[in-house]
Amino acid sequence: MKYCQPSLATIALRGFLSLATAPLTQSAVAQPALAQAVSPVVGADRAADAPCVGHVSTLSRGVHRNLLPVLFNAQFNAAAAADGQATNALQAEISNNLIKMRLYLPDRKQGFYLGTRFDWSGVIGSLAYKGHNYYGPWFTKSDPSVHDFIFDGADIVAGSCGTITGPVEEFSTNGKALGYDQAPAGGTFVKIGVGVLRKPDDGSAYDPYRLYKIVDPGSWKVRTTGDSIEFIHSLVDPTSDYVYHYEKTIRLVAGRPEMVMKHRLKNMGKRPLTTSVYNHNFLVLDGQTTGPDFNLKMPFEIKATRSLNSALAEVRGKQIVFKKALQDRDVLYTSFQGFGTTAADYQFTIENKKVRAGITITGDRPLSKAALWSIRSVLSIEPFVTMTIGPDREFSWKYTYRYFLLDGHGN
Fold this sequence. Notes:
Distance between the termini: 44 Å
Number of domains: 1
Order of helices and strands: HHEHEEEEEEEEEEEEEEEEEEEEEEEEEE
Structural class: mainly beta
Helix content: under 10%
Strand order of the largest sheet: 13-14-15-16-27-24-23-18-21-20
Strand content: 35-45%
Number of strands: 27
Largest sheet: 10 strands, antiparallel
CATH architecture: Distorted Sandwich
CATH topology: Beta-galactosidase, Chain A, domain 5
């Protein structure tokens, strides 16, 4: 299938204008100038002629008008121009007429994210509300030889497992992937939302920043409506006996500046499935530098379990306050406690007084851990939820994101 390949500058301009101004209609999604051909519905196991489901007309050979080659917005142009990562990445758009959102879709050949750390579903490339953009790249370049990320002069260079954007999730069991310790060297283990992976022949310890070989990506299905998108991932690893059915639905609430992210994980295998999941929440609000313009609030008295760099930030009761703008190689990280045993404490509010915008994140499950990570380009609050799912049982959880303006308009 042939894809339209306009220049990077043209793509960036069109993507930005489309995000900022265009209503999400069939005519807006399928403009001939932007896509002379449209992209197939994703599914690593789909035949080329399999049917697809969506909110606009279905074309022949499983082609859907709502899934396009990537359109860069202006904020993303620097990273994309640097390495061409998103040139052919598959994408979908949803809107509730208040929020306009672009998402990258899971696909082993044409996915934006091909790392083995984060869940491939629900990767948000941009979210626009009232003239503000909340998500986009926190890095300026990517390099597969980089472990995690590095500072290189003015550039922030991410490795293959970190070149991702928005509120993305990682599953881990005691800091490792499912079945990693039990797998022999050269055997297989499971990363939920990614697939069955190969343990290195040297039997080395698990490293989330390492790019592991994908033995089986499982089965992906994606369904869209005008204001929602559903991802379904099914996986079987006969070697480790882990089998699961995973669903994630992202929905924009009608008439409100809110996004709801619902999950359901069913254990279809014979072994108990014990894991934690956290959302990394890569927030790059209007490209603002992390610093005193930001304020982070929680409903509990914060007790940092790892000392903050006092030159950068400090805990003040139920708030974390930045004392200076992060620059150069500054890195701020701490995990913290103080939260209780109910979901009432899964609530985090981040505000920026310069751009007069903010976000509140709530969850419907109790926190098992929470952390803050930030460099100059991004602010990430990382809430954890832990689950143990017996055979033929399931676990569900939900996050709600509310976007607002500090002057009260748009709340």
